[in-house]
């Protein structure tokens, strides 16, 4: 959704109640995952694939993340999930999450304001919702 917005691609949004998925949705997307987008009569539900297709079809603005910055922040969500599931306050999961967040903060201070510098890239658009979930949950 953020990629569509950033590229100013018109789209029609259908919100899905994941607790009561409509029949049409499960017919086109048996795994029931969101997001799912229809491109030229083909339904695609993998976010990375969706972003790749959008980048190919709508080259401007280019949102490709330079390879040297592609993994920035990539461990934050996994560390967050581990921390949330942890039942042992001394298992190091909280510190691991704090370390990942500090590494992102240090990176942004050195290279920012965005992951790859002055412009938003796919890495920023991928990380933003994860950071939002982290903020809400914590």
TrEMBL record:
Q: Name one GO biological process term.
A: ascorbate glutathione cycle
* Domain GST N-terminal per the UniProt entry, residue ranges: 1-62
Which UniProt keywords are listed? Transferase
One Pfam family, please name it: GST_C_2
Per the UniProt record, which EC number(s) apply here? 2.5.1.18
Which top-level enzyme class is recorded in the Swiss-Prot or TrEMBL entry? transferase
Show the CDD domains listed in the entry.
GST_N_family (cd00570)
Record-stated family: Belongs to the GST superfamily. DHAR family.
Q: What is this protein called?
A: glutathione transferase
Q: Which gene encodes it?
A: dhar
